[in-house]
Structure formats: structure tokens, C-alpha cells
Amino acid sequence: MVVSVKSNDSAVDERANNLVRQARLAAAVFTQYSQEEVDKIVKAMTVAAIENAAMLALLAHEETRMGVTEDKILKNYVASEFFYNQIKHKKTVGIINEIPEANMVEISEPMGVILALAPVTNPTSTVIFKSIACAKTRNSVIFSPHLMAANSSNMAAKIVYEAALSAGAPKGFISWVEKSPRLRKETERMMVHPEVDLIFATGGTQMVKAAYSSGKPALGVGSGNTPVYVHKSAKVSSTAMDIIISKTFDNGTECPSEQSLVIDREIAEPLLSEFKRLGCYICSDEEVEKVTAVVIDPRTGGMNYRLVGQSANKVAEEAGLDVPEKTKIILCPMKGDIRHHKLAVEKLMPVLGYVIVDSVNEGINRALDINYAGGTGHTAGVFSEDDDVAERFAEAINAGRILVNSPTSIGGLGGVYNNLNTTLSFGCGTGGGNITSDNVGIKNLMNYKRVPRRKNFTYSFQTTKNIYVNPGSLDHLKGIEMKSAFVLTTTSAEKRGHLEMVLDRIPSDCRVSIYSGIGAEPDFEAIEKAVAAINAKGADTIIALGGGSVLDAAKIIRLLYDYPDADLKELSLNFFDFQDRMIEFPKHMKTKLVAIPTTSGTGSEVTPFAVVKDSKRHRKLSLVDESMLPEVAIIDANLTKTLPVEITRDTAFDALTHAIESLVSTFANDYTDGLALESMRLIFEALPEVLKDPENVVWRHKLHNAACLAGMAIGNASVGVNHALAHALGARFNIPHGRANSVFLLSTIAYNARIPSKFVAVSNYPVWIADKKYARAARFLGLIDSVDSKKDDPEAVKAAVDALLKAIADLARSTGQPMSVSELGVDLEEYKRAVPMMVAGTVEDMSIKTNPRYAMMDEFTQLFIESYPPREI
Amino acid sequence: MAKAKGKTEPVRILGSLDKGKDDVDRLVAASESDIILDFSACTFISVDGIEWLEELAIRAESKGMKVRFENIPPAIYKVFKISHIDCILKACGAPSTAIGPVC
Ligand SMILES: [Fe+2]
After folding, report:
1. In A718-793, which residue ranges form alpha helices assigned H by DSSP?
2. Is residue A696 domain-shared with residue A715, that is, in the same domain?
3. What is the pLDDT of residue A454?
């Protein structure tokens, strides 16, 4: 049946319109009902259905002449009592689900007007079930009964509707198409009616197809062809009894009922004998032919609808078989390739095919043959005491319900033999052309409104556990427990006498190995060499002595020493959310790391970052993880006294950039702000003094502290666009990191202080406040008179940001630090040519993830360009 | 409730609107000016209630009067939305749609 309504039958249209309008008003009114009101209605309907279960079963049997009245009574109970027990405590109004761990709730929204089809095989139970399900979910339902079962279906609808009305349900929320020759037309009209919201189809394949082709959302259910595998481990007596119960239930009208058995040879004889003993008839090959001739419609190859729900004796009589009275099932051995066997299809009557197999593999394969002969997505069964076999079967078969050691028909209904949802509508998934493989129920009759609250964002603050501070703090090395130390350093540290200072303080009973071959910017190869060295010597402690790159290298060397299988390239995978990353680092390092910085810049001694050069691919890999943090940092300014002026200045500007960028980072918080502000203050105060008197350990000490504080700030709040630009420039023109940072600083502060062209979409940064943060820094540094009441005025903020920019420019000028690219001796034309490549680098840089402004590519280009000419500030 | 000196007084719908209100019917019959229904105290509306409102609007229109609904609580407004009845939506101030509801 294809739905096409070109009917000019105005009577049909009018009736359809009336039904739909009534249902729509009821659906509208239903939205006002509370859970208590709904549950009261559902209860009243269930009671009425139970009171009328037998009467309705009789009526259905009389009208359809299908099935078994007693079984139809049970089905009416399943649709009412069993179903009620499953749903009575379920929430279907308001908040129906709270998911505190996801900070989310789900609220139900009714579907609206549902057009429900009822099949001839279950005319009353389906109506009872769907009515109760719709009431529970506050939907209106219009029933379109099968023409051959319209009286009983509509009677069922009327009974539950009247009970619902007395319990306060909205007028007209259940209605039905009256039995008439135009029933089908009216149904077709409603299937495409704009005011019908959902079609809930249970019935023949044609009806379900029509529902799906209507263009409306549809809950259709497919047809079945249930294979049942009986493994040799199955219990013969109970298997036979379960299958008999199931296949004879309502004379086999239930679509999940057994269609073909696949029996292990070892158990075939006893099982067939048991079937025979319990009143089943086993056909000879010639008899199978006769049965096939009446059971299968030769025109379609499908079952003969005339025999649906008829008794075994009736089928035998038609086939001309002489079988004992009250025969329960006619069992037909299927010879030859069952993929071509006419009986290997769905037969909703007490006729059961069977095939004998010699292994589990063969058993599952034959079951698949049945399954894929018109039953995908529907139902299957397995009898086996070996759970492994049951699992293998379930893994292979495509069915929405795979019943183990139980009847598939009553079992499939849910509630009686298992905890499946009670239903009379079996979703078959895509295998059956359906949207769901559920036992369709109230869950499928609601819209779910998810209401997620913003993610709760929690900060954690991580830093190096033991930080020893003050000139002379190197003495703390003496107290560190270690039996074998691997000292990682550079030749320059050796020359400056730092290595000796360290060796003097390592406990005398500690075995020491020294590796000073780590270059200025170590690459993979340099790291691998150092790892080979530590592997050869062994160590419980790594002492890293040097500048930022030595400290970074030590973190990676430790990682590879502790976890030789760690894959650096994988671990350096980029990420968007640094609090919830895809890759996982080892949780704990085994070897202790003592970091002793000899420059005041990176703060690497207190950060979880490590950068390594990938020389072959001309790029830098960044590793970030809490586990990378050293255990001990020693901040001893005696080690920076001899640092050349130029490096002192460059590294100080790196630290200053850390402080400034972490202050405005999207991850900045009260903890990092304090560190960043104080770091800035110390740099402004100490750097000029250090440059005047480089050997003055007191100012060196202040500068050393500033770098460490800024390190803690970026270790938790990270950096921003300035670092991304500096990384790209440094890589392309081989500019020291601190100097590369300083040439962009004035541009990036001005950039971040402007209202972003694009805001950053992260839950922990709800308000853009970068400009105010800069202003706060200006006040903290005493650059402006702070009038607290006016501090947030746009003009006051702008003046403060300008003051900060001027102070940085003054600091650079007074200390001789370049503030523009041109001052680095980079050729303008070469620089311009390099910009696109450098922009490509910045886009991939993890530093931009925490910038307070979502940086666009054209903005990167602009920042590169405007940072070239000398500054005029 | 009745109009006062040419100015229309809103009629308040109190509690549950589960059937027609005779006094409002009489008002429409007697009145020459527009009818305003105030829903601020309306707590529930039944199918009969909706149908009565629809009838009221149609009758008023046939007399050349307008019906206006005011202060409609969201739960009631949603009922009107789902009911999808043109004259009721118009009374809520919605522009008349070209296609219009089907029912
Ligand atoms: Fe840096």
C-alpha cells in the first residue's frame, strides 16, 4: 500500500479532520496534567482493561477466528497488568531524569497526536497497550483498527477511554476510526494529515511501510522470522516445553514466536522424541511437502494468511494429514539447503521447521540463514547451558531481542519471563526498516528536552612540591635523599663553575654520573643520547642544572627513562581542552627530578611543560602534563650572578611575558593572578637594578623569584598569542625566545585589550575582562592613581592599559631590549615573505588556546606586520 | 465586567476554564465593543473551554467585534499554541497566517 491521497471523498476528509481535531485539542489540554493526574488515569484504564480482559478476548476471537481465546486473555493481561506494573512508578511528566554528574536534567514533552494502527492478530491487547502508553505519556491517540478486527479493537478503545474520562482525562484523547468500507481510506488520509504528529504502526508489513512512506515520524515494527538454536548442552525436557508453550501461544500469531529450529545432532533425537511425547507431530518428508503446499502462498512465497492463528489440527486437515487430535505443533524437517527451503519463512501458526547441524558454527550459520530470510532485527532464541554459546549466538544474530532458554513469543512480550520492557510492538532496528530496536513503550512516546547546565568548572593548582629559595639554597641538595644521581647540564654551566657547586653538595654516599652533552636547544636525537646515557648508568634522581631548555630536556629524559615505551609524538598531540585531553600520560614518575635554573626566565622548574625540537620536521613538540613537574626546585641566585647581560634581559622579558599573558589568560584565577602581578612588580623593580649591577645578588634574587612566580602562573594558566607569535618568529629567524616575545608584547597587549572580533568559547571564561586585567596590573604597579570607584570606567581602563604599555616600552628602552622585529636585524622583505608560514605556525600553537581573544588568522597577520616597524610609543 | 463609558473592562477568567461562561456569552450578546478576556487567574483549560473560546471569537467576529486575550500564563498559552486554532491565536495577538492551521 502506498499512501497517496487524491481522494475527493469529502465525507472521508471530514471524518478524518474531526478525529484529528478532537485529538489535537485533547493533546493540547493534556500538557497541563501533573504526574499524579496522569497516574490516576492510567490506573483507572488498567483496572478497566483487566475487568474486561476475558470479554475482549472472546470478542476478538469471535470476530477474527484467529488464535486461542485463553491466550488472548493472557495477552490482554500483559498489555494491562504486566505493563502497568512496569510503568507505574516511571516519571513521564516534568523532569523525568536527573543526571547530576552531567549537570543536566531531562524534561518530557508529549509527542502530540498519535495515529496508532492495531493488527488483526492482537486487536484488543494492542489497543489496551497503546492506550495506556499514550495516557502515561500525555499523548492523544487515534486508533485505526484492522477491518477484520474493528469491532473488538474499537470496543477495547472505548472501554479504556471511558475509564480514563471518569478519572479526569481530556475529552477525546482516545478515539477510533469506526468500522466502515472507508476505514482504510480514512486511515490513509490521517497518515498524511498535517496535524498528526506520529504514526505508531503495528501490523502487516504493508501498513508499516505505508506509515514510513507517509513522511511523518513513525514507530513501525517489522516482520519476524525467529530462528531458535538448540545447542547440545540444552536441557531437553524444558527446551521442548518452552518451545511448545511459545509456538502454540495464541496459535502462533505472536510475531516473535519460533519459526525454525536449528538443532545439534547430539540432542536431535531425544528432543524430537520429547516433542512427540508431549503431543507434537513430526512430519515425514512427503508430509512436509503437503504442509508446505497449504502453509505457503505460492504467489508470494510468504505464509498463507488464511491459516494465520489456526490450530495445528486445522492446518493438518487442510494439508490432508492424519494427525492425532489436539496436536500441538506440526514439526517439519527441512531437507536440503534451507536458504532455498519454502518453509524457512515466517509462519504465524503452529507449524515449525527444523534442521539438524553438526557444530556450533554450523548452528549459528543456519540460524543466520533463517534470520536473514525476512527476520533481521526482530527476535531470535537460543537454548544452551553453555553461556559462551549463547553469547556467540547473540553476537552473530541480528535481532532486537535474543531470548536465552525461554519461549520467544511470551518471552519477547517482556515482563512474564524476563525483564524486557513489556510491549506489543517489537522494534526491529534498521534490520527491519525501523528507527528503534526497542520493545517499544512509553520511552519511545516522549520527546526528551535536555536541559544542560553550564559545566561546573573547577580549577586545580599544581606546582613543584619543594621549592627552596634564597641565595645559598643550593645547600638543600645535601638533604635530598638519593643514592644515585644523574646530573644533566651543559658545558657552559660547567665553565661557569655551577657544576662544581652542585657536585660539592651531593651527599658523599650518592653515586653520581654527569652528562653535560645536552646542547642549547636539544632535539630528539640529543634527548635519545642522554636517555642512553642514563640507562647505562642508572639513577634514582635526575639533577637538571641549566636554563629552560636543559630543564625541559630533563623532564623528557625522565619520562623516557621511567617509561621507555612512551611515544613522544603521540604525547605531544595537540588539544583544545587542556583539562580533559585525549592522550594520557603515565600517572607517576619513578625517578626524582631536581630542577636548578641558572637563568631567570622560563620558570620551567615549576611548570608541567617541556618543549623539544623535532629537527627532521622543523618543528617543536610541546609536552604538557602534571606528571612532568619536577619534585624539587632550587632557586639560588648565586647561579645567575654571572649570567651575561643580554641573556639576563631576554630571559627577564620572557618572564615578564609569562606574567602578562597568564594574567589575562582564560584560565587565570585568583591563585595565578597574585603570582603574575607580583612577578611583574619584581621585574619592573629588579631588572634595571640588575643591569646596573649584575653581580648584586639581592636584585638577582628578586629577578630569579619573579621568573619562578611567573612560571607557577603559566604552569596553571598558560600563556597566549604573544608566545604563539614568538614561537613562530623564533623558529623561522632563530631568535632567542625571550627576545622574540618582547618584540610583540606592545602589539598583543593592545590587541587583547580591544573588544574581541570573536570571543573565546570556553565555559570557564564567561566574561571578557582582559582590558580590566591589564588595568589592574597598571594599578598594582603604581602606574596610575587609582580611584577605585571609577576604575571600571572605559576611559579609566583605557588610560590604565596605555600606562602599562608605556611602562613596558620605557622598561625596554631603559634596558636596551628590542621592542620591534626591525630591531632584530630581520630583513623586511624576507620577513614579509615569511609571514604566511609563521601565521600557519601560530594557528597550531597551543599557546593560543588560553588567549582571552579568539585569534583569527588575519589578525595574526596584522600582528606580525605591525610589530615590524620601530615602536613610536 | 460590563463596559464602562465606552471603555472596555477586561473580563477575568478565574481558575479552571472547563466549560462555557454564560455571563460572558451574555456580555458578547449585549456588547457593542471589543471583548477582553484576562487569563492571569486562569489555572486550567479543558477541551470544552477551548471550544467555547473558539465559538466566542467566531460569534464576536460575526458581530464585527474583536476578542482579545490578555495576561495569558505560559501553560495556558502553550495549550492555545498546540490547539492550533486560528481565531484563538488571533485573539492572543498573533498575526493571521497565510496558510493557517488545518483544523
Ligand atoms: Fe616563554
Report:
1. 721-733, 737-742, 745-753, 770-780
2. yes
3. 86
